[in-house]
User: What shape does this take?
Amino acid sequence: MYNQARYLDAGDKAVVVELGNQISTEINRKIRNFTLAIEKEGLEGVGEVVPTYRSLLITYDPLTIERDLLIEKLKILEENLEEIELPQPKLVKIPTLYKGEGLEYVSQVNGLTAEEVVELHSKPKYLIYMLGFTPGFVYLGGLAEKLATPRLQEPLTKIPAGSVGIADNQTGIYPIESPGGWQLIGKTPVKLFDPDRKQPILEGIESGNYIKFEPITAEEYEAIAVVVEDGDYQVEVKQIDN
Amino acid sequence: MGELKIIKAGPMTTIQDLGRFGYMKYGMPTAGAVDQYAFKIANILVGNPEDEAAIEATFLGPTIQFKVEAVIAITGGGMNPELDGKEIPMWQAVKVSKGSKLSLNGVKAGLRGYIAIRGGIKLPEVMGSKSTYLRGELGGFKGRKLKQGDELSLAKNKEVREFCLKRSIPADLLEDYLEDRKIRVIVGPQGDYFTSKSLETFLTSRYQLTTQSDRMGCRLAGPTLEHTKGADIISDGIASGAIQVPGDGQPIIMLADRQTTGGYAKIANVISIDLPKVAQAKPGDKLKFEQIEVVEAQQELKKKEERIARLKEWLATEVKKRTRYFKIKVDGKLFEVEVEEQ
Assistant: This one.
């Protein structure tokens, strides 16, 4: 982590605040706090705040707030991050049916049984480092080293929404149907992204929060899917210690 | 059933507004008109709010049958618009009679044309916007590009008002940017990922737009740019107009449908008021980048916004001069009536 953030221009309507140059939970925690602090401050003229692994992209209207003034205000926030009261991160439970060719492949490659893969995959709390790639796609940290598996040799043209997969040392969930090369080890009936829902991104799915996969049976999957279709499904979200 | 029927759609015709905001942090691209200048002017000309949904056409414009009388304005790339076979002007409000057929042809200057219709297009907002985001199959008309047989409804069936038809842009406000290929950029945020020689190459060479260009971005071809420590960065946010350079050393300008984050070093960022020039560049066109400082770019932006404000003001006074407002009571109900003088 840098002692002081770097403030970089990204054109005439955005700045990048870079807090470090590595992927670490410590830097990401500060990114989360900085993001929340900016949102709490409600800086006039600021548009999007996009938190990523180790930096924030902040878009602004230069006709409302001058660049230098914006950076000055951001620096003040940066200096006072410790003192700003922020909510604790949340843990979102994602019910997951572990099943599929990928599950067998991941087991074989790593010399594990399918049960062990499920156990290892569903145990950790995964930090949501950031969202990107497609709406609702989470970049997670915390996959057990034993589960790291190379991508598919030939990417699939259609991976259904809700698929849970592993690619190298990453794990994640496909929020919308898209092509991809991940080893698919399961699926969730929960929709991480639904543009027609009042809250399009699933509750709690924000960078700085955590995800935990909860193994479910095929029957439970079907039952939840029905509730999800009716728009009544409430995902389990709880606050955890920072 | 709608008032506008698409007879021919053209290869890439979508409904857009100024974009979808507030969701970038969730990985949602903003989408919206690629040439925001032409888009705004089209709406202003027909008396719509600047961010009202309108049609964006690329390469080849659509043919649309109007089942009602309407006022439209066509801006952006020169697509030789015709109404029932007779040429009509661009950058001006035009009256369309009931039953008329509007056809836009192959683009002559620029690349993207815009058609705004007075009253706007009736469509549900998805996440606060009517913009089509093609990859996410959402927004706009059923989340896809328009095709033959589609019917669009007008949001408000506003009366055709004669004053609209005199609406055109005063010569001093009209900008000639469609064939301007001088693109001003601000170096960074990862300018230091490139050798100084590469930075110089980037700013002195010409880069040609390839056919691998769409609403997401323009891939360019030209002298290879060398990275000092590799092309990969830890993924971060991508601003509109960012110029990424992957490992092959060929730049990509990121446009409206760009991903919110990416892992390639960004050598520079096109300034906001020059993005319409990029939006109007065709595959084969050669771009020349020129460095400018942020402060200067923002002053230019301010000037441009002031010109647009002047245009709006000018049009508004034209309206005021010709319109009188009355309040009348009918059956005990109060109505506000606008009467326009001819």
